[in-house]
Amino acid sequence: MTQDPRPEPQQSPAKTILRALAGERQPVPPIWMMRQAGRYLPEYRATRAQAGDFLSLCYTPDLAAEVTLQPIRRYGFDAAILFADILLIPQALGMDLWFVTGEGPRLSTVTTPGELAALKPAEAIHETLSPVYETVRILSRELPRETTLIGFAGAPWTVATYMIAGRGTRDQGPAHALKQADRATFQGIIDRVTEATVLYLSAQIEAGAEVVKLFDSWAGSLHGQDFDDFAVAPARRIIAALKQRHPHVPVIAFPREAGDRYVGFAKATGADCVALDNSVSAEWAARHVQTDGCVQGNLAPGHMVTGGPALVDATRAIVRAFSGGPHIFNLGHGITPDADPENVALMIRTVREGA
Ligand SMILES: Cc1c2[nH]c(c1CCC(=O)O)Cc1[nH]c(c(CCC(=O)O)c1C)Cc1[nH]c(c(CCC(=O)O)c1C)Cc1[nH]c(c(C)c1CCC(=O)O)C2
């Protein structure tokens, strides 16, 4: 009996997003959209009403999978992003979390050594988060073969800003204040979230996530050495730990509003792709960021509200600016509830058909 000793030929991954993340330039960039499952879609609002509230939606795997699939059915995006929230980690560490309609998230706070000591150990998160892993398992069965499944978590700095303030803040003042007043407690919070995030993203990958993304929505308020210590260093730690366990799973990092600190961010953290917000121009980012590898972004989400020729022109300009290298088309931040679903369709047509 002869056995063919040749290994399987190395093929580039078929899914367009995985090809972009592997550094491949494509004639048409793959596309997905931050907050693509959200309140601008009537079918999302219906499922959310069925769940009762936002957190029940996050923790009910069948319904969370359903809202993840809705924008895939409607638009055929190249990727689906797991439906969950970055604030599930603080909750899994033992903090209270609730959402006030029209206002946003509220949490119990952690600002003292005693409150830090009272947080659960990172390994305890799976008890709370196992429904999220079940959502991932459902999605990896139900998504079309060509659609990439993206898992995610908040980056430690951004998650810590909510844990310290107990809510969203304009300038992340309470977190900056704790960083100055009690460095050890602040660093302890960052470290606990970092450890939990490694375990959380690993579990998502083991359940079927093919790519993971780290959302550092408030990275732009870190400057100088603080940016290195609290945006770069935690991302580098998380990515190194993930690459050790899952070397072939690409990581997208989103240090939102990092400005000129986007330059070199992929190299410094080990990320396979840097997601760009719309405060940087695509031409600038093509020259200074895309030279290191894949970039994602960066249409202003306001175009999903206003539409028209301005949407088409801005979309084309971004596609053109990034056409020389690997690019995943996306918005620069999440789509807002007042967006018109027709404008999303127009954006996708413009990217795919050059319409
Ligand atoms: C800071 C942050 C949060 N959550 C998230 C971030 C980082 C990205 C960013 O900067 O937007 C990330 C997030 N939140 C949600 C997802 C799901 C995946 C996706 O579609 O992108 C993701 C990736 C669902 C959600 N998370 C939330 C909603 C709206 C909840 C609802 O249905 O009422 C959704 C769809 C609620 C949420 N969750 C959070 C806030 C501040 C709010 C309230 C603001 C708002 O209402 O838009 C925390």
From TrEMBL:
The keyword Electron transport does not apply. GO terms for molecular function: uroporphyrinogen decarboxylase activity. It comes from the Bacteria. One of its GO terms (cellular component) is cytosol. The record marks D85 as: Transition state stabilizer. Its EC number is 4.1.1.37. InterPro entries: UROD/MetE-like_sf, Uroporphyrinogen_deCO2ase_HemE, Uroporphyrinogen_deCOase. It catalyses: uroporphyrinogen III + 4 H(+) = coproporphyrinogen III + 4 CO2. Residues 30-39, 150-166 form the Uroporphyrinogen decarboxylase (URO-D) domain. GO terms for biological process: protoporphyrinogen IX biosynthetic process from glutamate. It is found in: Cytoplasm. Keywords: Cytoplasm, Decarboxylase, Lyase, Porphyrin biosynthesis. Substrate binds at R35, Q36, A37, G38, R39, D85, Y162, S217, H333. Pathway: Porphyrin-containing compound metabolism; protoporphyrin-IX biosynthesis; coproporphyrinogen-III from 5-aminolevulinate: step 4/4. CDD domains: URO-D. NCBIfam families: hemE (TIGR01464). PANTHER family: METHYLTETRAHYDROFOLATE:HOMOCYSTEINE METHYLTRANSFERASE RELATED, UROPORPHYRINOGEN DECARBOXYLASE. Homodimer. Catalyzes the decarboxylation of four acetate groups of uroporphyrinogen-III to yield coproporphyrinogen-III. HAMAP family: URO_D. Belongs to the uroporphyrinogen decarboxylase family. This is Uroporphyrinogen decarboxylase. It comes from Paracoccus salipaludis. The lineage of its organism: Bacteria, Pseudomonadati, Pseudomonadota, Alphaproteobacteria, Rhodobacterales. The gene is hemE.
